[in-house]
Amino acid sequence: MKRLPFLLAIATIVGCGYDYDTFGDDMLQTSCDKMEECEFFTDYFTYEDCLALGDVEDTGGEEWVCEDYDSGAAKECVDAWAAVSCDDFLTGTGLEICDDVCSND
């Protein structure tokens, strides 16, 4: 039983490792995968084009900052995108947890 506090500390550290950059990368991959699954790509916008959006630098306007990032909601958001049906993907139904990732007001 002396190992329990140590294991809980390790689990807490590992669980907090889902940072905003990782979330962004996972969301891009998951979104592109879902668009491929739902056959949304065309000859003009392909799966590779979608993935390349992660390399595009936003040079316009003020940089957006995620305030009060919630790593738990972020992970749930990625999981929701992966599980959502194609019809719900189009309407955003079932993706409400994503509203809780950044609580900017």
Index terms:
globular, 105 residues, disordered N terminus, 52% helix, mainly alpha, 5 helices
Give a short synopsis of this structure:
It is built from five helices and no strands. The protein is mainly alpha-helical. The N and C termini lie far apart (44 Å).
Describe this structure in words.
The structure is a single chain. With 105 residues, this protein is mainly alpha-helical. 52% of the residues lie in helices and 0% in strands. It contains 5 helices and no strands. The longest helix has 18 residues, at 20-37. The protein is globular, with a radius of gyration of 17 Å. Mean pLDDT is 81; it is low at 1-15.
Number of helices in the DSSP assignment? 5
* Mean pLDDT score: 81
What is the 3D shape? globular
Q: Secondary-structure element order, as H and E?
A: HHHHH
Uncertain regions spanning at least 5 consecutive residues: 1-15
User: What proportion of the residues is helical, as a percent range?
Assistant: 40-55%
Percent strand? under 5%
Q: Quaternary status of these chains?
A: single chain
Total strand count, please? 0
Rounded radius of gyration (Å): 17 Å
> Separation of termini?
44 Å
* Biggest sheet layout: none
Structural class by SSE content: mainly alpha
